[in-house]
Each structure stands twice: as C-alpha cells, then as structure tokens.
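Appendix B, example 12.
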Amino acid sequence: MIIDSYAAGTVKRRIGTLTRLLRHAGIADPAQITVDHVRAFLARGEFQPWTIIGYLQDIAAYAEFAGIPDPTATIRRPREPDGLPDPLTDPAVATLRLEAGKLADPTLLQWINLGLFQGFRASDTANIRAENFDLWADRIRLKGKYDQDDPLPLAPVVRRSLGCLAHGKGRLYPGVTPPEVSAEVAIFAAKFGIRMRYHQLRHTFGTNLYRTTKDLMLTQRLMRHRAIKNTLKYAKLFDQDAIDAIRNLPGAN
C-alpha cells in the first residue's frame, strides 16, 4: 500500500482487492491470508493476464505495508501482454481542439493541450501548480509517477493558454480530481463522436514525439518513463517504416 507515494485511485483499488480476497476466503484478518487463499481467489474465473498481475501486485503491496510474508511470492506471474499505445487520430485531435477552443471557459482546452503537448496524465493535470512553471526559461518542472523531477520544455501553445495562471501560487485547478479531468474530457469528446480516455492524449504525445524524432532516449525523457521498455512500445507502432525501408532499397523490387 505505502499510501503516501500512491495516487488515491491506486489505494482505493488495492483496498478493494484485499476486501474481495478476504470475503472470498471467509476470514477477517489480512494477516491470515495464505498462498492457498490467493490461488483459490484467482481460480474464480478466467481472468486476463493484466487482471491477475494487478491482483498479485495489490496483495503483495499490502504484505509489504503490513510487514508480513508475501502470500504471492511463490505464485508464477503471467507474462505481461505487449499492449501498444492507443493514440488519437489526427482528425480526432483537430476536432477536439477546435471545439474546445469555442468554449467560453478555456479550462477544457487547457487540459487537452497539457495531455497532447506535455504528455500529462490526468493526475498531473489535476494537481499542476503555478510553482511548477518557469516562464523565463520556458520550462515546466513536474514530479512524475515515479518521483522524477525533471524540468521539461514548455510547449508554446501551453505557455499561451496557461501563462496567466502560472504567475500565481498554488494549484491551477483547486478541488479538481484526476477522475474529474478524465470524465469531463471524455464526455466532451463523445459529443463529437470521439470515444476516448484522457490517457490517450498522452499516448498521442508520445507517438508524435517518436514519429518526429525517431529518438527513443529523447522520447523516454519527455514521456518521463522510468524504463525504456515502456518507450519501445512507441517504436513498435512504426514497424511499417521498417517495411518501407526494405522495400525501397535499390534493387529490392
């Protein structure tokens, strides 16, 4: 659990997993959870690999938090699926920005631009503070998911839309939660036939970065990925480039 370093959504999910496990095992004390309880819990249905991995991570996190032996330690984890990023199409992006730009309240367009041009997660957007901006240097400093604290270049479109707010102090969007950011953008997009999650704006940012630079290390830094394997997924989107390169070799056709 280690509550202080995790988002509220993560803590809520892990408490839910533990509650369901205890109910299924018919016990009240989490310290009594055994590997057999966990195996029986996972055998309830045909879960997808990501679901099983998530359950095991939740239970292991509680064991670490409580200082008890990890009941999942001897359970073999499924292989993580190679999920690819899911960027929005260029027409969808254009529609979102055009329609959000027509609103009297600029907040929604600001949220969309933070995802598209800074690679923000919903939690980044909801919690961004004026103190994170260095307008003189055109930089934004953000503590990321894994506590990176790297000053990143500020996109001109973000500076223009947020510059006036960044001169103050405190949160730019006080009282707003990450789920609210995600829901409001998704509901707005649905009005124009676009089904999306806020995180797809970040996927679009990463896709466009790699498409433009073909530089994995730079993409990793600007995406604030701790592990390069997460950035490699963006390269896989461009396998067609490799196919075209081979086909265009002299004499290849």
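The longest strand covers residues 139-143. Confidence is low (pLDDT under 50) at residues 1-5.
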